[in-house]
Amino acid sequence: MAARVSTIWFIDSSDARAELSTYPQPDQNAALTVAKRLYPDKDFESLGPHPLSTAATVQPGYVFIGVYQNISVVCSTELSSFLPSELPATWLLSPPAPRTLLVSSVPGRAQGSFALWENGHLQRSFSALPIDIVENIGIPETWELPYWAGEHPLRYPAGVLPDPQSLPFHPQQFAEAANAEWLGFRYTGTPHNDDLDKTQILLWGFKIQQKVEAPKIMLELVAPKVKLELAAPEVEPAPSTVSIPEPEPEPTPESESESESESDTTEELHPPIEELESETETVEPIAEAAEPIVDAAAPEPAALEPSAPEPSAPEPTKRGRLARYFGFH
Fold first, then answer.
1. What DSSP assignment string belongs to 75-133?
2. How far apart (Å, rounded) are the C-alpha atoms in residues 67 and 313?
3. Residue 28: predicted pLDDT
4. Residues 75-120: pLDDT tens digits?
5. What are the residue boundaries of the structural domains of the chain, listed by start?
């Protein structure tokens, strides 16, 4: 088995060979769903359908996935491990398939590996180099007996002695036999009459890419603007209240007690008429500063004698000082 192979199969069918013999078309959306489960932190570029003969020789940075009715297959370089038993649990999916098969072949180091899980539990695992068994777990299956019996020995060039620790078979050829037994076809060598055509089994290819993150500077520029709008909304100024003083009611002479109270209030607000007159008398009239104009024809008026003060009329009993101030006699 000189071809590079790195595949894992998830089988929920009692006869995988019969289902693959119909050469079903791969489901692109279902394949992308499986890819996101296996690589949750990656993005994927669709490459379209590819035959299994090409997909099985997958290179780093790519993944090929085929999802059919009861069978799924994934081709990835991460499956070419020395120890199949230490395959991360994420590769077994959840819930696990009734049967999970791993087949790997690395020509660069002449390594061949295969493994079988049933309902998520490892049943058989084998990995070896031509002169060293790396892992051998579980009971060998019936189809393995001819290889352990030496019926498929290693072949050496003429003149080259075999290594004393050499296996009785080539590890890559051993993995090829596991693939033929479980799935019904081989990657190398002359196909048998009943072998499936691996070029007719199609898988959907994806290029694995890093997720593109949104520029952080955009978030920093937009976020403060939103905060300002939320923290400082525009508030219209409240209308100012203007108080208008009510006019004072005009006093009415209702009773003597009300007149006296009004007069007392008036005395506090306005000085009495007598005080105003006394203040006026202190001011010297302008007429005394100038010579009076005397008419020659007119006789000189006799001096006015002070007359006796006329008796003042009695004040009305119901009128107070406020009435006298406004000229009510």
1. E-GGG--S-GGG--GGGG-SSPPSEEEEEEEEGGGTEEEEEEEETTEEEEEEEEETTEE
2. 130
3. 93
4. 999 998 889 999 998 888 778 899 999 999 999 899 999 999 999 9
5. 5-210, 256-274+318-329
